[in-house]
Amino acid sequence: MLTFLMGCTDKGPDPEADPDGDSYTNQQEWDGGSDPDDPDDIPYKGGWGKDMECRFDMEPTGNDVGDIAENFALTDQFGDTVHLQDFCGRPLLLELTAFT
């Protein structure tokens, strides 16, 4: 388990600090499932917490039913970049639309 998942304790990092300078406190990042030491990993604005239990441990296996797809990134309706594996362990519906 990653150390930042432990949350704020009397002996741990300051919950109000922002060590990576991304304008989110340690507590906001822990609650949102993001790494408080990585300025590019921020809580998801869409309201879904990132699933930290499996998001860094998944290895792609293929594209057939039951396989783990390659981790790709898309921009959502809030302007956030989200990765497929940010939502591991949760049902996910991808709606793709193309205009000509």
**Contiguous runs where pLDDT drops below 50 for at least 5 residues:** 1-11
Average of pLDDT: 76
The strand count comes to 2
Q: Approximately what portion of the residues adopt beta-strand conformation?
A: 5-15%
Specify the biggest β-sheet: 2 strands, antiparallel
Gap between N and C termini: 46 Å
Oligomeric category: single chain
Task: Indicate the overall shape.
Answer: globular
Helix-strand string: HEE
Which percent range fits the helix content? Answer: under 10%
Verbal overview:
This protein has 100 residues and is mostly loops. It has one helix at 26-32, and strands at residues 73-75, 81-83. It has a two-stranded antiparallel ribbon. Mean pLDDT is 76; it is low at 1-11.
Features:
6% strand; 1 helix; two-stranded antiparallel ribbon; 100 residues
List the helices and strands and how they pair.
Blueprint: H1 26-32, E1 73-75, E2 81-83
Antiparallel strand pairs: 1-2
Give a nutshell description of this structure.
By secondary structure, the protein is mostly loops.
